[in-house]
Amino acid sequence: MKKELIKKFEEVFGSDGEIKAYFAPGRVNLIGEHTDYNGGHVFPCALTIGTYAIARKREDDKLRFYSMNFEQLGMLEADLKSLAFDKAADWTNYPKGVMWAFQKKGYEISTGFDILLFGNIPNGSGLSSSASVEVVTGVLLKDMLGLDVTMVDIALIGQYAENNFNGVNCGIMDQFSIAMGKKDNAIFLDTSDLSYEYAPIKLENSKIVIISSNKKRGLGDSKYNERRSECETALAEIQKVKAVQSLGELTEEEFHEVESAIADPVRRKRAKHAVYENQRTIKAVKALKENNIALFGKLMNESHVSLRDDYEVTGIELDTLAEAAWEQEGVIGSRMTGAGFGGCTVSIVENDKVESFIDKVGAKYLEKIGYAADFYVVDIGEGARVI
Length: 387
Prior knowledge:
The structure is a single chain. The chain has helices spanning 2-13, 93-104, 129-145, 151-164, 173-180, 224-239, 252-258, 265-289, 293-309, 315-326, 354-369, and strands at 20-29, 41-42, 44-57, 62-67, 76-79, 113-119, 185-190, 195-200, 206-212, 331-337, 344-350, 374-378, 385-386. The chain contains eleven helices and 13 strands. It is globular and about 60 Å long.
């Protein structure tokens, strides 16, 4: 792969100078959805699919970008001295945003770059292609410019760029899990203070199957920011009667003691999801440590129901996939993953049932929705790195 990408880079940009290669994975969140901006826990893992970047320094301040996924856009250019969000700049707003964020945080970017990208994450699928691009850009800058920046810093800078340059009010989970991923482990991350532990994923006789609904969505123009705002308002109402910093601090019992402080029933449902989902995530990791994979799967299913009924971020496509999965033999658990409103589900399926699972769920989805879903049997991989 690396050789082929460098060859393409040389075709596009020429072969002078030192050319280097980088990789950042996509991620899937096993449980803990819409908790990361509510001060709760998440449980994501890095995948073996992701974003490759091939780069070379320039002698000037010019930035030239080329994506093998969007070849029809050709080469897109920008200038280091005048980085600004531009809708016409399309996907390059993600690497540009990271460079802008590095500058804002006081790091000197002393030279321009030629950068070629290739991603094998399904676009718009909810497996975090945008965060993958952000983190691979951070790793590239760290390595090529010798910047004194940790992988956690790169995750935080990526989130800062997404929030303040691209206008999506995302939490830290995506960038953190991509930067800090570890093979065969998920990351049990407390988003309130970024404390984390690696938890081995021992699926002895099972596989993780991701299904892309192929309903495209963009976070910025989805109702993502609206959900975040509803939770912030609900928290402010709770804070009038109880001293808490985030919804993630509350147990289910504590939530029921204060929920009447939330004036609007819709906001009450949103806050309930944030509290219950956080507790589900804590219970799920405990179940995994105790090798109780059946309980882990049950909590995954409950997570989807809460995202459907209380948070209302699933939609017919994701509900069809989850419900079809629950009916299949050998399915331990299945839920939507990512922000919702399209994107993917994640399922844990017994090895000898994977083939029939794909056939049957695929047929049901096609029949009901009218177009096909894509299936990915995935492995848990390492975080972002020089390759």
